[in-house]
Amino acid sequence: MAFDILFDMETSDPDDALTLCLLATHPAVTLRAVTVTPGTLAQVGMVRHLLARAGRSDVPVGARNPESQKESLSAFHTKWLGPLPPAAPDALAHEVLARALRRFPEATLLTGAPLQNLRLLLEHHPDVHLHRWVAQGGFAGDNVVPPEHRLPKFAGLRTCPTFNFNGDPKGALLALSSDRVGRRELVSKNVTHGLAYDGAFHERMRPLASATPGLALIFEAMERYLAQRPEGKLLHDPLAACAAIDPGIVTWAQVDVVRERGEWGSEPAQGTRTFISVAMDPERFFRTFVGLGPLHDPPPAPR
């Protein structure tokens, strides 16, 4: 049975748009809301365009700062989709999230962006509780990750900068400490840097790409991307989305998250309700990505 998910995104690279397409029509998910940071009219226009092409124009879209003039769309989005008309959001992002959580209190929030919208939700809506938060962000170092699962690029590290958490450290620390956030699952860069959508992945996708409108959009986007960058694209946010759908993709460790001199790390702990990725199963990821399963309900809160 499909479960409810809310997606908070940005558009500085293709990752979030691919994740939006995936969630819009995935058979295990009902996408209930999308929020964007900073939330320019150009960003909202792109999000509405993709939702429409996926047949999900019903999904409400929120923006943190729709008046922002910041150039927030990566060049890839324009090359892929062409010029798109700007569009207004339904409401401010924290209001869209609050409305969705009041209506769907068991929904999972997936964040693939700096955490301003989650921070504003917690600051402005004290009646709202978040059952489960899955974040693309954070870092687990050698003190948490077993030797056989360490990526060479992070060898010897206990802390590391991470884009989404450093985009709003106050929001990250608030969400990690709030008693109104139930279970926290961090799909961290020590794992996401080990998974890429490359030519081999694309060819494996080819016979499956018509299964849903979302997969068709992803295949279309990556045809263009790989033509310019055949080495492929790291799948940070899509991995987080698939771990939200099937937590068994990832091996989790319960931790306390620490921040030191602008870098993030983790310390093994119990009773924190905060779990971080230390390894992942690429085959199980692929099957979840394309909707073949195994698909599981979100795990219960730890005892």
TrEMBL record:
Keywords: Glycosidase, Hydrolase. It comes from Myxococcus fulvus. This is Pyrimidine-specific ribonucleoside hydrolase. The keyword ATP-binding does not apply. One of its GO terms (cellular component) is cytosol. Residues 6-286 form the Inosine/uridine-preferring nucleoside hydrolase domain. It holds the Pfam family IU_nuc_hydro. GO terms for molecular function: purine nucleosidase activity. GO terms for biological process: purine nucleoside catabolic process.
